[in-house]
Amino acid sequence: MDRLQAMRIFVKVAETESFAETARHMRLSAPAVTRAVAALEELIGARLFVRTTRSVKMTEAGARYHEDCRRILSDIAEAEAAAGGSYATPTGTLAVTASVLFGQMYVLPIVTDYLDRYPAMRARTFFIDRPVNIVEEGIDVAVRIGHLPDSGFTAIRVGTVRRVVCGAPAYFDRHGVPTTPADLKHHRIAASTSAWASPEWRFARDQRVTIDPVLQCNNEAAIATAKAGWGLTRVLHYQIGPALLAGELRIVLGDYEEPPLPIHVLHPEGRHAPAKVRAFVDLAVTRLRENRLLN
C-alpha cells in the first residue's frame, strides 16, 4: 500500500463525506478508495469512519488521525514545493476568506488583480459572515475585522473600521440631526441583523442606548433604506464608503463613536509561506493600506 496516497484518499473522504465523490475527484475506482481506507484502518487498528447507506462520518479516532494527516501532507507538499521552486514563483490555487460585504467590496478586486498579474494562478474565495477555521478549511489568507486571539499566525494590520450611525441628508432635513446617543430614541431606526448586531447600541464614554427598531433587516437592506431617506441605521463605516463619497449618506454622532476595530491580513504559513501567499499578502497589504476609507 502507498501510505501517502492512502492518507490523501482518507483526507478527501473526510472532506467529502463520500467514498464515491472521492473516487470521482481523485479519478480512482470506488473499490480502490474503499481498499485504501480499509488498509489504513487495519494498520492503525481503529475504525476511521462510521458508514451507513446515507452518510460517512469520522469516528473520534478518525478525527484525530485526520488532523495529523493534513499536517503531514501539508509538510510534504511544502518540502516538495520548496525543492521544485514554487517558493520563487506563484503557482497553484490560492484560497482567500473575508466577511461577505468586505470581501465583495475590497478583497475581490485585489484577488482579480492578483490573477491578472499571475495568469498561472487560480483562486477560490470564501466570503462568509462567520469565523472560518483557516487550517481545517484549507485557507491560505484571511482578512479579519476585529481584535485577534493569540494563534501563532502571521497578522499584518492594514487599517481600521468604525461602527457609525448614518442617514440620508433628506432624512435629516425632515427630522433633524441627533446630537447625542439619547436622541436616537426619537428617530426611526432600521436595524441591521448582522452577527454583531444588538438592540443595545454602545458609544464612547460608556453611553448605551437600547433601540426599538421599526425595521430589522440585513446590512445591505438597512443601508438601502437609509439611502432612501426612510430612517437611520448603524453599520461598519466601510460598508457605506461609496455612499459617503457620493453624498448619499452622512455620518452623525461621530464624537460618540467607540474605538475603531483593526483590520488584519492573516496567514498561517509564517516565514515558510510559498510565493503564491507572499505575493498576494504583499498586494493586499499595499492596497488596503492605501484605501482611505479604511483608515
Structure summary, number of beta strands:
14
Please list the strands of the largest sheet in the order they lie side by side: 4-3-5-14-6
Poorly predicted residue ranges: none
Question: Which structural category do the helix and sheet elements fall into?
Answer: alpha/beta
How large is the count of helical segments?
Answer: 9
Give the N-to-C terminal Cα separation: 56 Å
Q: What's the CATH superfamily of the largest domain, by name?
A: Periplasmic binding protein-like II
CATH A-level architecture of the largest domain: 3-Layer(aba) Sandwich
Task: Find the CATH topology of the largest domain.
Answer: D-Maltodextrin-Binding Protein, domain 2
Question: What is the name of the CATH class of the largest domain?
Answer: Alpha Beta
* Secondary-structure element series: HHHEEHEHEEEEHEEEEHEHEEH
Report the helical percentage. Answer: 25-40%
Q: What is the total number of structural domains?
A: 3
Our estimate of the beta-strand percent is 15-25%
Report the major sheet.
5 strands, mixed
Gross geometry: elongated
Round the Cα radius of gyration to an integer and report it.
24 Å
pLDDT average, as an integer?
A: 89
